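Researcher: Please translate sequence to structure tokens.
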Amino acid sequence: MFPDCIGAFVAEMDFGVPPVVQDVVRRAADDGALGYLPLHERHAARAACAGWLASTVGWDVPADRVHLLPDVLSVMRETIRHFTAPGSAVIVPTPAYMPFLTVVPAAGREVVEVPSLLDDDGRYTLDLAGIDAAFAAGAGLLVLCNPWNPVGRVLTREELLAVAEVVDRHGGRVFSDEIHAPILLDDLPHVPYASLDERTAGHTVTAVAASKGWNVPGLKCGQMVLSNDADAEAFAPYAADVSDTVGLLGARAATAVYTDDGGWLAEVVDYLRGNRDLLAELVAEHLPGAVLSRTEGTYIAWLDCRGLGLEGSAASFFRREAGVALTDGISCGEAGAGFVRIVMATPRPILRRAVEQMGAALTAARSAS
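Model: Translation complete:
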């Protein structure tokens, strides 16, 4: 999209894919096996996902409660369609993953943006009072993203329990996007929201995927996890049709990495920790006045550029003057105005060059003013 720029706006990694994924794709091509997804392989992918959830985050989910869909947004659409009242509004805490704000109106629903609370260190917390008010006004579904794209938070058990109190009080539902769960940079556990207690299991639809952790978004195999009998029964008539939208290679890749990725993810996460720490150093050196939120999970950084003295969009400035393409924070909701989203999953020399170019452009602009 921006061939003359260093790209840091698409949420994928510049580290290739695990060898087990390469083997899956190569073997399928060599065998000429690129047809539809057989039923037994569909079951294998569902079982592998359930096994990974149990072994990694301690959430025991029956494999038949896992359904294959192309991606997290597909799960979100199915959640809105099947598990919310017709016409009910959808609550999106912001800053948010950009498509959350477009998928909802495309489904014929109103988006209720609830700006999250931000402290002086760039740390975000959910505005529970704002969420409560949105439910009280008639909204039916809360969109939760944990780990939180774009601000990098890993929500604690206590925070999630506080959310559950609000949702339960209003008889609401939750769509929980947890596709960044494999990427934890601090010593913090990922707590699946639906795993907290019977209340959350009863009102949640969860989305997980191998796409972010193992860098395979193009293979299109996400997972919808249902956590109660009523939802499982309600969705059963539609399960086969939605699973038919998933490709063979995506299901095989998910099965492979959920089962044994050969240590690839652990190495990548360790490298990402180094990138996170380097980025903090580079921002302090080259972008004085900017505030970088600490990324606890995901490979996404969130930078407050309001203190840089720029006129207009910071993302436009850095793309035009520094040759670095970032996501404009305004696309993450009104609360993102003046911020940029940086995908930091790139080799460190490139990350360093990007921030140095941003700093040089800022210095030049200040000298010219």
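Researcher: Any highlights?
Model: The first strand starts at residue 6 and ends at 7.
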